[in-house]
Structures are given as structure tokens and as C-alpha cells.
Specification:
The protein contains 7 helices and 10 strands. It is of the alpha/beta class and 194 residues long. The longest helix is centred in the first third of the chain and has 12 residues. Keywords: Transferase.
Length: 194
């Protein structure tokens, strides 16, 4: 399995000129994600997808000897689609703004991988995020609950030619290590209290 980290977003909800993935939480947020993936020993390769929106993030990753692929920065779906077309393997995709991600939750999630499902998205429930004090924009109804995407998916890219009309499989895992995305200044302030 290959890990892909989406690290090329504009971070527009942060409303800051600073790249949010470089915000410190003992170390830059992006390095928490990088270390968690490396420490899990679940992946044959870890690839960071950067864009013109994230030049300082790209520089930091290169300084730490991580593999980078540049995207156009047109958007999450478009950039991911372009990358998946060049990979013929099982893929673990994560957003790069999960500072609490660790090797144990990664191992738990990857143990759930089923190659018969082309696309499995990990969800957290609205009630769980509300307890954390976090909100999200990407809502889905699943098992009679309002849920949100965690930013983590597992994909059998060997069987995908494009992202049109893919049946999505869902798994709910209410865990702050994947529920705590840093998207706004308020999220970042809240992170300092964890």
C-alpha cells in the first residue's frame, strides 16, 4: 500500500497568509502526519502532493527527504484524480492537516482495507465532532447519522480509471486522531488545548 498525503491546498478557511501545514504543534503539523505514516510501517512508499499553493511546505518536506509530486493546485479532487491515474496499487490517502494522527490509528484503519471496495472513506459523526468543538463542511448521511469526511480514504487504484461514478464504501471511526482537522484559526487555538 502507498500513502498519499494531500498537502497542496490553499488553506483559505484559515484566513492567513501563512501556510497552515507549517503551523507549529511541537513541530510543523505536516511533520506530525509524515512521522505517523513513517512510524506505522504500513506503506511501501509515502508521497506528498504539493502545489503552487504550498511552496514552503514543499521546501520543508524536501529538506526532510520526503518524496514530492507537484500538482496543479486546481483542487483536491482534480489533483487526486491526476495522481491516482499514475498509481497501480492500493492507496491510503490522507489530508495533511491532521496533527493528532498517529501510527496506531493508521494501523487500525489500514487493517480495515478490503480491495473489493474501490473506495472506502473514513467518517466521523457530527455528534463526535461537536464534542470536540470542531465543525466541518463535507457532510454525508450514513447509517441514519449525519457524518463528516475525516480526510482519509483507502482506494484500490488498480481498478479505477477516473473518479466518475465510483461507489463509495464508508466506515465510521469516532476518534480525535482523525477527527481533529485544523481548518480555521479557531481549530488551531483548540489544538493547543489538547
Amino acid at each position: 500500500m502507498i500513502a498519499i498525503v494531500m498537502a497542496g491546498g490553499k488553506g483559505s478557511r484559515m484566513k492567513s497568509s501563512d501556510e497552515k501545514l507549517l503551523l507549529p504543534y511541537k513541530k510543523p503539523i505536516i511533520l506530525h502526519v509524515a512521522d505517523a505514516l513513517s512510524d506505522s510501517d504500513c506503506f511501501s512508499e509515502i508521497i506528498f502532493i504539493t502545489s503552487p499553493n504550498s511552496p514552503k511546505t514543499k521546501k520543508l518536506l524536501l529538506e526532510n527527504n520526503y518524496k514530492i509530486i507537484d500538482s496543479t493546485g486546481q483542487g483536491y479532487v482534480q489533483d487526486l484524480n491526476n495522481i491516482l491515474q499514475s498509481i497501480g496499487d492500493s492507496v491510503f490517502v490522507t489530508s495533511a492537516d491532521l496533527p493528532l494522527l498517529d501510527q496506531n490509528i493508521i494501523k487500525k484503519i489500514t487493517s480495515l482495507y478490503d480491495e473489493n471496495h474501490l473506495w472506502t472513506s473514513i467518517l466521523v459523526t457530527k455528534n463526535f465532532l461537536k464534542k470536540l468543538g470542531i465543525s466541518s463542511n463535507y457532510e454525508v448521511n450514513y447509517e441514519n447519522q449525519v457524518c463528516y469526511y475525516s480526510g482519509i480514504s483507502m482506494i484500490n487504484s488498480k481498478k479505477i480509471s477516473n473518479l466518475d461514478n465510483i461507489e463509495e464504501n464508508f466506515v465510521i471511526i469516532d476518534d480525535k486522531r482523525i477527527g481533529f482537522n485544523v481548518n480555521t484559526k479557531e481549530d488551531y487555538v483548540l489544538l493547543g488545548t489538547t
